[in-house]
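User: Batch of two.

Assistant: Item 1 of 2:
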Amino acid sequence: MVLFARKKTFGCDYSKRAKKGLRMKSVVFKLGVACGFPFLLLAIYAYNDAIVSVQPPAVLPIKAGWFTMGSDASDRVAAVKICARETRGQAERDRATFQNEGPAHKVYLTAYRIDRFEVSNQAYRRCVLANACAPSRLSDRDQRLAAPQLPVAHVTWSEAQRYCKWIGGALPTEAQWERAARGVSGRRFPWGQFYNSRLANHGSDDFGSDSNDGYEFAAPVDSFFEARSQFGLLNMAGNVWELTADYYASRYEKNAIRVDPTGPEKGEARVIRGGSWLSPACTLRTTHRAQIGRTESRRDVGFRCAYSR
């Protein structure tokens, strides 16, 4: 157990956990002193562990409620301006791209939980070693993308879904992903309403990588803490595109289900969200949508998992 400076974070009382943990550490330490060197080593380890700061949980709760999904005309105008500034004036092409974000509509989601971080190479490898997952197509020698703390990528939709099932979850629906990114206030970016080039690992104006945000390639899954979403999720913009459970459609259906929607019943592609280290600034918005083939994998597409209550 570990110490934590604040009493409550994300609805959990960590100070009580820490106090209980310290009492346990104290018992172990006294036992180590009384029983000799082997137990003393254990006691030292316990003491060192006790002074580490508590981190928020790796899986975060999202409360049930209504939110606005998709963008309206004013949101798309703002997106065009970002693209015009960041992509050398190619606004007309981008204006057409943003049409798949509409129409804006109200959606109700029951409570669920979702990973705070994108699934890392290290976490995914545990599934591979358990013979439950197929290996990623990333080369282990390429530490720009395959280092343990970086997000796993180059897996297909089915392979990502298999991992999530292995740990007791599933890929988030497109609606679950967007609510987790936008928060209760409908943020345009996970961190707020205004674009900031230093708050996400994204690419240049020609869909290529750059290091202006501190990372030329993938960033650790716990990076950009200051850009966390209102619910506390990291890297909901940039780093890697994230797979969702839904099939892709060019626009939301006007008469679609508004309670826990799961998207079209069939399709040729799946929805990906959030942008990546290879994509430009206009892809970082919480309503931006893109697609990937059902059996396709890319070095800048990864995922996180969601869980029922």
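Item 2 of 2:
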Amino acid sequence: MVKFGIRLLGTLGNVEMLQKLGSSAEKNGFDACWFAHDPFQPNSWVSSVAVASVTNKISIGFNIKPYTIDPSEIATFATQLDDFSRGRAVVALGSHTETMFNDWIGLHQNLLDLTRESVELVRGLLDGKIMEYNGKVFHWSNEAYMRFKPLRRKIPIYVPGIGKEMFELSGEIGDGSLPMATPPESFDYPMKYIKEGMKRAGRENDDFDYVGLIWIYHSPEGNVDKMSLKRIIAYFIPYLEEEMVSMVGVTRDEVRAIAEFLGKRDYEGAAKAVPDKMLDLAVYGTTEDCIKRIEVLLKKGATSISIGGPFGENPVESIERIGKEVISYFKSR
């Protein structure tokens, strides 16, 4: 059965609001609740613990970028979150873009090497190994081991990313992959390279989780606040895969025009520069509209769907409707 996750960004509100949204997601059929850990954004560690404290069943995930946090800290937080949530922690380790750490904060690392070594080190620590290590990025002594026993030795580690090489790496080393499905019709593209990575590693895909990340705006009457979607699209479009977004007719010049506004910190100007055709990068409309686009993802091989905002006019009410009308449709089949 397909699983559904929800991505709660700090822009949705304060910690109390995220708790309310996470609790509603659990009550309405979501299987996982994810938090992004990005520079200069609300801290995912605080948000994930806060939501874990008001839920009982939903998995709690944090999507960490290893360039600002050492694998030793990632491993210890993951184990403590897992203990606090009674075995509900999941980890995403990687990045959808190098811009944040190369251009924003000047940490020039090879993303592939950084991700590969971070996943290896975190897994080894969780498994109780002494992680004496001499890699391209990390150099650890024989003092690198956990001083306590985690609740679980095997916490799932997903690998996000954009681009052929990151897709392949996720298939090679991840328990699952987290590519953007923008638009859903483009999901064949990352799937091809994820499977190539799996084949290269000699892996079977029986328990591999192919997660399609979408943005959604659900409206019972089909009345969509286009600007709320355009704000999200404008912020992320410069980082998305050209081969995928071109499926809805997006051109380099259009992306460049939006990026110019972002460079001036004119986020409203960037949103206004998003043409209506870019709305098709997201899933929006009535229940039937949303179901139809999600069906596309499932037919292309997605095993899980990860839903990001704006969700709808009222996020709390929209999460409830998405659960009762969209998720229930798929889980009742």
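Residues 315-331 form the longest helix (17 residues).
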